[in-house]
Amino acid sequence: MCMLVFRQKNIVFKMEEISVILNSSLLQMRETSTTSATFVAVRNTSVAGKVASTAYEWRFILPPYFLIFLLSITGNCLVIATLASNRRMRTVTNVYLLNLAISDFLLGVFCLPFTLVGQIYRRFFFGALMCKLIPFLQAVSVSVDVWTLVAISLERYFAICRPLKSRKWQTQCHAYKMIAMVWMLSILLNSPILLVSELQPMRGNAYKCREVWSNAELERAFNLGLDVGLLLVPFFIMSFAYSLIVTKLWRGMRHEIQHNFKWQRHWYKDFDIKVNNNKKSVKDFEIKVNSIKW
């Protein structure tokens, strides 16, 4: 009897152990199912977010980029073809405009397509060499644009405010020299971009093109120099030149208006004097005729 009771207790104890094991396995299965469900849900939401963002970019970002690219390429090509083919239009100002059109064309070619691809795909596809060349050519094009506008403002200032002195040196040869100086300085000042632009690895065997500086102070000094050289200094030079041009033209217009007003007043006075003299002569004639009749 004791043996039977002991066996029955063992059987009951084993049954309890089996039920505990089954309950724990069920709990683990529920936990795994919930974690897998949450993982699938998160993955689905991330995929849906990527699809939605891609659709938004293709619908709202691609058309403006394409329109700006098309207008930039066609417009600058027409300007370059017109000024290059017609020698009569190669004045000093048009030489600067030709250089401005060339730099704008380069900026449209090397900025818009690569920026659009990076904006849509969030990675860089074009290799290490293009990672160095594209940012460098973009910076050079912007620098040439800015300083060509500065050269045009100075050329207009000397042509309007100092016309007699500027005729001696304001020639096409001088304009070509200024353009060559602008290109050389732009290439020289933006050359550090060639050295610091590198491909940086990302997840999923992808790369991004970033500037990698060895020292944060050098990067800060370079960016500050670009801000001063491409924003502040050109802004002050152009503002000063065009303010002097506006002042000169306004004084000339005011002087011309005053001169015309004085001339009109003098003409009206002469006209009134002539009219009065004619009236007097007519009266004298009438008096003579009447005297003859009597």
UniProtKB/TrEMBL annotation:
Q: How does it sit in the membrane?
A: Multi-pass membrane protein
Q: What cellular component terms from Gene Ontology apply here?
A: plasma membrane
Localization, UniProt: Cell membrane
Presence of keyword Lipoprotein: yes
Gene3D superfamilies per UniProt = Rhodopsin 7-helix transmembrane proteins (1.20.1070.10)
Keywords per UniProt: Cell membrane, Disulfide bond, G-protein coupled receptor, Glycoprotein, Lipoprotein, Membrane, Palmitate, Receptor, Transducer, Transmembrane, Transmembrane helix
A Pfam family annotated for this chain is 7tm_1
Question: One MF term from GO for this chain?
Answer: neuropeptide receptor activity
Q: Kindly give the PROSITE patterns that the UniProt entry links to this protein.
A: G_PROTEIN_RECEP_F1_1, G_PROTEIN_RECEP_F1_2
Q: Where is the G-protein coupled receptors family 1 profile domain?
A: 75-294
- Listed transmembrane segments: 65-84, 96-121, 133-154, 175-195, 228-250
List the InterPro entries hit by this protein, alphabetically.
Cholcskin_rcpt, GPCR_Rhodpsn, GPCR_Rhodpsn_7TM
Recorded hits in PANTHER family, A to Z, give: G-PROTEIN COUPLED RECEPTOR (PTHR24238), GASTRIN_CHOLECYSTOKININ TYPE B RECEPTOR (PTHR24238:SF46)
Q: Which family does it belong to?
A: Belongs to the G-protein coupled receptor 1 family.
Q: What is this protein called?
A: G-protein coupled receptors family 1 profile domain-containing protein
